[in-house]
């Protein structure tokens, strides 16, 4: 399996150095790929669940065969004739998080997952790859997509969910497009939702590097009312009829607020330019969640809403890891210390050269003493483990809600990612 991973990464790198011309391979449309990721700890299977066409493409049109981050999974699109890689994207999923739980040792489950790629002009081969936390390939699946297939459903043409821009830095082709959806807001509460969406954007732009790069973002609020007000809280046996059926107690963690209804989310966005998703939940309960290139879901009426939505967007947009840790090491196995994590703000020192080593001032000790209050260092503890994993600053937005900024390491990682998508 290690040889397979090495071959995948090597081939991907060698082909990606040749720039792809978007118009040679793609139309200005989106191909939506729906999958079911199914399995348990022992075995995972990827199944195709459906194909859709959306009327425009809001994603990048340069560096098509490159990846800014490896993620826990990848979509690789190849020209079916030449086998040349013409597009790549990466992601993480709730399914892969679930595989770390005790339940996954004895139960088999399936999770919806939806991904967006540019719409091909000719038949392409799409490959989906899932990695484990040890970076070995856990599952792969390939399938062909013929753009003339009559079973590719056309969405976002005859009906588009009402929406309005909260912030518009420029055209969708030049900006990173973020859609904000309402969860647990009734029709009568939609003005409250729009106000909450404005607060979320305001909080984002209070943080660097988003503050200095506002012109590279569009934020659009989408009118998605629910039948009931509030969201489901299983520990209170309180279940609501909401737009996306989100709930707390994901994996039996009371504060983990998520949803598995990915197709419903993307259906609501059909016809709207979007690349990233924030869902605001109408609840005073504390909680949320953020999954890289999937979504952010945040409780909008808890006092910590504004810092939490930025933290979770750090996960879903920036691919940043949590920097907090547990002294009793209850989640030590989540990140193996013999491999380098793909997230840019934590390191096991296995390949520290690929992280923030170049940002360290001369003579910075590695690791850095926690009493040594440096702006950038190598502090032990992060990604849930107190030992063997290191973060770049003593404190950061990715560690605590009460610290006012992203640390310099996270700011650098976010800036590079924004440049990747917009330059």
Structure description:
With 423 residues, the protein is an alpha/beta fold. The chain folds into two domains: 2-154, Immunoglobulin-like, CATH 2.60.40; 163-319, Collagenase (Catalytic Domain) (3-Layer(aba) Sandwich), CATH 3.40.390.10. It is built from seven helices and 18 strands. The protein has helices at residues 2-16, 22-25, 94-98, 190-204, 262-269, 305-316, 408-422; strands at 26-39, 44-54, 73-79, 85-91, 109-120, 124-131, 137-145, 153-154, 163-168, 176-183, 217-222, 276-281, 288-291, 295-299, 325-326, 346-347, 379-382, 384-391. The strands form four sheets. Strands 9-11-10-12-14-13 form a six-stranded mixed sheet, sandwiched between helices. A four-stranded mixed sheet has the order 5-1-2-8. A four-stranded antiparallel sheet has the order 4-3-6-7, with helices on one face. It is globular and about 65 Å long.
Itemize the secondary structure elements and their pairings.
Elements: H1 2-16, H2 22-25, E1 26-39, E2 44-54, E3 73-79, E4 85-91, H3 94-98, E5 109-120, E6 124-131, E7 137-145, E8 153-154, E9 163-168, E10 176-183, H4 190-204, E11 217-222, H5 262-269, E12 276-281, E13 288-291, E14 295-299, H6 305-316, E15 325-326, E16 346-347, E17 379-382, E18 384-391, H7 408-422
Parallel strand pairs: 2-8, 10-11, 10-12, 12-14, 15-18
Antiparallel strand pairs: 1-2, 1-5, 3-4, 3-6, 6-7, 9-11, 13-14, 16-18, 17-18
């Amino acid at each position: 399996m290690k040889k397979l991973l090495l071959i995948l990464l090597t081939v991907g790198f060698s082909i990606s150095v040749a720039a792809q011309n978007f118009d040679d391979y793609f139309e200005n449309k989106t191909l939506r790929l729906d999958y079911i990721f199914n399995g348990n700890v022992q075995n995972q299977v990827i199944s195709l669940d459906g194909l859709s066409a959306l009327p425009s493409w809001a994603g990048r049109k340069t560096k098509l065969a490159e990846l800014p981050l490896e993620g826990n999974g990848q979509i690789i699109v190849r020209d079916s004739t030449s086998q040349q890689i013409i597009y790549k994207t990466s992601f993480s999923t709730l399914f892969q998080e679930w595989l770390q739980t005790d339940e996954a040792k004895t139960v088999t489950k399936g999770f919806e997952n939806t991904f967006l790629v540019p719409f091909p002009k000719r038949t392409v081969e799409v490959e989906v790859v899932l990695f484990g936390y040890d970076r070995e390939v856990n599952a792969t699946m390939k399938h062909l997509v013929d753009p003339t297939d009559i079973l590719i459903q056309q969405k976002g043409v005859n009906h588009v969910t009402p929406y309005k821009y909260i912030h518009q830095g420029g055209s969708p082709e030049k900006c990173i497009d973020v859609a904000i959806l309402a969860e647990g807001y009734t029709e009568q509460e939609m003005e409250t939702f729009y106000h909450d969406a404005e607060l979320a954007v305001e909080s984002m732009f209070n943080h660097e590097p988003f503050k200095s790069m506002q012109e590279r973002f569009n934020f659009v609020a989408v009118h998605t009312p629910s039948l009931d007000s509030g969201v489901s809280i299983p520990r209170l046996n309180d279940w609501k009829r909401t737009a996306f059926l989100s709930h707390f107690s994901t994996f039996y963690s009371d504060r983990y607020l998520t949803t598995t209804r990915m197709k419903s989310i993307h259906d609501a966005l059909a016809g709207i330019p979007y690349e990233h998703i924030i869902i605001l939940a109408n609840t005073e309960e504390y909680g949320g969640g953020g999954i890289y290139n999937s979504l952010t879901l945040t409780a909008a009426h808890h006092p910590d809403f504004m810092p939490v939505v930025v933290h979770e967007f750090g996960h879903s947009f920036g691919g940043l890891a949590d920097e907090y840790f547990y002294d009793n090491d209850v989640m030590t196995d989540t990140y193996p210390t013999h491999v380098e994590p793909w997230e840019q703000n934590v390191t096991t020192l296995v390949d520290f050269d690929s992280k923030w080593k170049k940002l360290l001032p001369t003579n910075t000790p590695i690791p850095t003493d926690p009493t040594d209050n440096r702006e950038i260092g190598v502090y032990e503890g992060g990604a849930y483990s107190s030992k063997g994993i290191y973060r770049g600053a003593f404190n950061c937005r990715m560690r605590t809600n009460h610290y006012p900024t992203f640390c310099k390491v996270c700011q650098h990682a976010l800036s590079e990612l924004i440049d990747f998508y917009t330059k």
